[in-house]
Amino acid sequence: MLKVNDINVYYDAIHAIKNVSLEVNEGEIVTLIGANGAGKSTVLQTISGLLRCKTGSITFINEHISTTAPHKIVHKGIAHVPEGRRVFLQMTVQENLEMGAYTRPAADISEDLARVFKLFPRLLERKKQVAGTLSGGEQQMLAMGRGLMSHPKLMMMDEPSMGLSPILVEQIFEIIAEMNKSGTTILLVEQNAQMALSIADRVYVLETGKIVISGTGQELAKMDEIRRAYLGG
Questions:
Q1: What are phi and psi of 202, to 5 degrees?
Q2: Predicted structure pTM score
Q3: Which region, left, alpha or beta, applies to residue 151 given φ > 0 means left and ψ of -120 to 50 means alpha?
């Protein structure tokens, strides 16, 4: 579905992403793990068109998207749930969700809303509430629900567990698994390596802008260097 081939990304003179290649097959959960500053968010931002790669290519369903505008990438079926949630704080829950549906025919929005409310019953309870008054966990659910409103083929999520209590982290990962079972392919950036490895079909490890290890979640969970660096074991 997604093929990132040998991309290099720069912030002015800083070489942030170095010859990164990865792929995501339809129906998978693929996770990118690594320390703070490793370049994980930069990879997602480059795929979604917010940043440009200087060299290399990105292909989505056999179509080159390396130079495609971000809003057109959403139209093609990629949703990006950014780090830090970025919900519209002055708007209600329902208004936030409707903003996520700007690529969808108006006739389909009520059906999309019903799907999101089924997955996130808490949002249904708070649909008229202003997003800025929600808890951190509720805002994360809203950001994920807003991403789903575009009916994406591929959902990219950046640090969905950040700042949440352990119970909420488990809930968020259960919802991610449910989204995947319902047919959404997922590319996940996550610092909680234990949860990420437990849910992922395949994992890439990024260190200082380079992919240093890749394999299945089970394979990486057994590797001593991964256990020492990311799992505290």
A1: -140, 155
A2: 0.89
A3: left
